[in-house]
Predict the structure.
Amino acid sequence: MTSKAQVDAIRIARQVKKNFPHRNFREISFDREVIRKDILPLSYDEACRLRGPVFEALEDELRRAGCSMLPEFLHCLASKEQALFESLNIRERLSDDMALLYKIVNILADAELAVIVNKHQGLKMCFTGFFDTMQILEPYRQKYGYALNSLNEHIISLCHNIQGQERDAAEPISRIYYAYATYLISSGQRVNAIDYLQIAMNLVRGHVWTAEVGMPAGSLTLHELVAQDLARLLLIQGKAVVRTQPEEAVAMARRATVLIAEIGREKNLEIFIDTFLERANFLMEIGNYNSAQQCLDQIRTQILACTEYRFIKLNIKYYLFQGQCYEVFEVVDKAISSYKRALRLSRLYSHKDLEAQILLYLGKIFAKDTQMTSIAKKCYEHAKRIYVDFNDQHKRKMANYLKAKLMADEITPLYMAMLKASTTRYCAFFNLRQWKNRCRPFWHHLGDEIIKQERDSIYCLLDEEKEDIVRDIDDIELKTYRLEEGDI
C-alpha cells in the first residue's frame, strides 16, 4: 500500500470515528477476509426464500422434505392471496410477514411428517400441531382473514377424513371442531356451527379434558364448555326460526335442556332455567299455552328461590310469560298481577327492552276495559318513547298502531251516532268520505299518516252547514262527493 493510500485510510478511519462515536463503530476493518468471516453463510433453502417468490420456495422445500399435502395447500393459498391482492380486496399479505408464515409452515410440516413417519401413532402430534396453528393465526383474523379461513377449511377436511378413527387424537380433534365452531359463530354461520359443536360434543362426552390446555385439574372441562355453548346457540337459533319453523324451535329448546341436564343442572342453573323459559315462549308462538304453562310450572320453585342479580332477567321473563298464559286462560287479575311484577323488576334494574314489551301487553289488557283506556294510552306512549330511544322502528310502529287502534275504537261509536243523527245527505256523505280517506293511508303505513296529522294543528272534520249548499255547488257535489261503490 502506498503512503498516499495509507494516509487516505487513516483519514477515513478518523472521519468514521468522528461521525460514529459509539464504541461499537470504532473498530472498522476494510480487510476483505475479516469481512467475509463476519458474514453468516445462507443455506440453499434460506437463499431460495430470500430470492422469492416465498411460496414457491416453501413448496419446493417441503416436497424435498417428503410432504405432499402441505405444498398443495400453500399453492392454493398463494393463488388466493395473489388474486385478492390484485383485486385490491386486501392490503396486507401473509407472505410479507415472513416470521409468522415460517412459524406456521414449520408446525404444519412437522405435523404432516409425524403421520408419514409414525402412521397412526403420530395422529395426536399431527392434530395437536394443526390446533396450534389455528390458535397462532386467530389473533390475525382481521389482517389475514383469507389465510385463516383457508387454513381452517384445510384442517377441518383432514379431520373429516379420519372421522370415526380418532383414537388418541380425539382430544386435539375435538378442540379443533370447537375452535372452528366458534369461528363460524363469529362469522354468522349458526347452523353450521351447531353441527360442528355437536360433533365436538360427541367426542368430548365421557372425558374430563380441561377447557384449555394446561389448566389445573378440577377446572372447567371441555365437555361442560361445549355443552354450554351448544345449548346457548340452540336457543339463539330457535328464536331466529320460531316464526317460520316453530316445531323445530321447540325441539331445539328441548335439546338444549337435555344438554344442560347432562353436565349438571345445579352448576348451570341459569342456562337450565333459560331453556325452559324459551321453550315456553316457543310453545306460545304456536298457540300451545297448556304445554307452555307446564314448562313454567316445572321451574317455578327454582326461579322463585333465585334472588341473585344474574337471575333478575330470568325472573322478568318468567312473570311476563306467566302473564301471557293467564291472559289466554282469561284469568285477567292474575295476568295483570304477573305483568306488574315483571314491570316493577324491569324498571328497578333498567331492562328497558323488556319494560316496553310488558307495557304493550298491559296496554292490550286495559284497552279491553272502557274505563281503563286512559291507562292503556299511557302504556302505549311510554313503550313508544322507549322504542324511539332504542331506534327500533318496527316496534315503534307497533306501539303507534295499537294507540291509534285504541283511539279509533273510542271514536267510532260516537262518529257513527253523529252520522245517524245527521239531517242532510251532504253532511253524512262528506264526513263518511273524509273518515275513510283519513283511515286508508294509516292501514297502509301502520300509523305514519296519523303521526303526521298529530303534529299539525287540530281541525274540525265538520264544516259549518250552509243553507243553500245543494243549489250553490250542485256540480261540485256531483264530481267530488259522489257516493261510489264500496264507500260504505
